[in-house]
Write a structure and sequence with these properties.
Blueprint: H1 14-22, H2 27-34, H3 45-57, H4 63-71, H5 88-97, H6 101-113, H7 115-118, E1 131-140, E2 162-170, E3 176-183, E4 202-204, H8 212-220, E5 224-228, E6 236-243, E7 252-263, E8 278-288, E9 294-299, H9 306-314, H10 317-329, H11 340-364, H12 370-379, H13 387-392
Parallel strand pairs: 1-4, 4-5
Antiparallel strand pairs: 1-2, 2-3, 5-9, 6-7, 7-8, 8-9
Helix pairs in contact: 1-11, 2-6, 3-4, 3-11, 6-11
InterPro entries: DUF4372, RNaseH-like_sf, Transpos_IS4, Transposase_11
Pfam families: DDE_Tnp_1, DUF4372
Protein name: IS4 family transposase
């Protein structure tokens, strides 16, 4: 019977190894800058960050589960820099009162630190400085702290609240470069006002972000975009560049036109200055895919081909996958606090957890899906295993034995005799 040395024991739990990815940057300087430890003696910013990441990575449903789970770790807390498990009341007070801006700064500092590491060498064969993707996802709340969307319920029912996470990512990365959390009722196009884009970059988004005034401003600055056209859009065709007939089962560009769309001038707050209208000249591309689905795209780039316009819009699916990862692999159905600051803090910590696992996945250089990585981390979160070897391991069976294990003895606990999975 030979020992299975594929996964080695180490002196730190997996949670500590993941935290080392975060502590690669100087978090203490962020604490000083944000003064996030002011008025806190026993529950510091790092303690709260570790506590939140433990709850998020282990998918706890409440702060009670988080604190009880940490209390059950016993002698492993010292590896995480904790002297003891925080009391539920202390952790809840910190979640309610400590400014979520600290966790926001930690997230963006991590994004900046690992930006080059997470970048892909793919350029998609295009000549743009950056290809950026914009979208938002709505998270439903069980209270009306933040105003939600949708119709009011009938009778005595109470309308639920909701928040919206707006995100801008680089097409060659898988983390949010610019993130804004708002009430769900906030219109998507308001997010575009806060973006600072460099000339000759291209930003891709869905038709919910149609904002003709911003399109005109971007055109003046040579910032390009690709989006879908609204079905009720009113436009005039100035020139037809090409046209083709539809053919069933064949993906092809059907029309390529130069069109004009009207908009009202606005001030910095989005209020109309005058009733007079201006016109922005854009390009309209009509496309049919191989499944006979029909699309209408808008862009202000007159140089690329119509096929490149459709290709750029297909890249928008990357950000949809990012939101899918966040909602399926982390606990966003239940929140640990009931005020706005607590909700913001949990969302920022969820984004931090997703970023840390993304870095971990790339460092391990494995082809396992992100969901598999998140599951392995959750199951072995406090196990003292080498996390990289755990992810790389492809062993699907126990070591061979001369005979069956002893009656009543689980194979899981046979590692001391050389027959365990470790």
């Amino acid at each position: 019977m030979g020992k299975n040395r594929e996964i080695n024991f180490v002196g730190q739990p997996i949670l500590k190894q993941i935290m080392e990815i975060a502590t690669a940057l100087d978090i203490k300087s962020i604490i000083r800058e944000k003064q996030s430890d002011r008025y806190y003696k026993s529950f510091g910013s790092m303690t709260q960050l570790v506590t939140m990441l433990f709850g998020i990575l282990s998918r706890c449903d409440s702060m009670t589960e988080v604190c009880e789970g940490l209390r059950g770790m016993g002698g492993k807390l010292n590896h995480l820099g904790l002297r003891k498990s925080p009391a539920k009341s202390t952790a809840s007070d910190g979640l309610r009162n400590r400014d979520s801006g600290f966790f926001e700064s930690v997230y963006f500092s991590l994004v900046k630190h690992y930006q080059s590491f997470l970048s892909d060498s793919r350029t998609f064969g295009l000549t743009f400085k950056e290809v950026l993707l914009v979208d938002s996802t709505t998270i439903r709340l069980f209270s009306d702290i933040m105003k939600g969307v949708g119709r009011n319920p009938k009778g005595d029912g109470k309308k639920k609240g909701g928040l919206k996470v707006h995100m801008l990512i680089d097409a060659v990365q898988s983390v949010g470069r610019f993130v804004k959390i708002t009430e769900a009722k906030v219109h998507d196009k308001n997010f575009l006002r806060g973006l600072e884009l460099v000339p000759h970059s291209v930003v891709v988004f869905d038709r919910a972000y149609n904002y003709y005034l911003m399109f005109a401003r971007w055109t003046e600055k040579q910032v390009y975009f690709v989006t879908r056209m609204k079905k009720n859009a009113v436009y005039t065709v100035n020139q037809t560049l090409r046209t083709h007939y539809r053919k069933k089962g064949q993906a092809k560009v059907l029309r390529d036109e130069i069109v004009g769309l009207s908009y009202h001038p606005e001030d910095e707050n989005g209020r109309k200055i005058t009733k007079d209208t201006l016109e922005v000249t854009l390009r309209r591309v009509c496309y049919q895919d191989e499944k006979n689905r029909y699309y209408e795209f808008l862009t202000n780039n007159m140089d690329i081909t119509a096929e490149e316009v459709t290709f750029l819009y297909k890249k928008r699916w990357t950000i949809e996958l990012l939101f899918k990862k966040m909602k399926q692999n982390f606990q966003l159905n239940y929140f640990y606090g009931e005020n706005t600051n607590a909700i913001y803090t949990q969302v920022w910590c969820t984004l931090i957890a997703q970023l840390l696992l993304t870095v971990l996945q790339k460092k391990a250089q494995v082809k396992k899906a992100f969901s598999v990585v998140a599951t392995l981390v959750r199951i072995h979160l406090i196990s003292m295993l080498d996390v990289y070897q755990l992810l790389k391991s492809e062993n699907r069976q126990y070591n061979a034995h001369d005979g069956p294990p002893e009656t009543g003895q689980l194979a899981l606990f046979l590692s001391s005799t050389g027959g365990g999975i470790f």
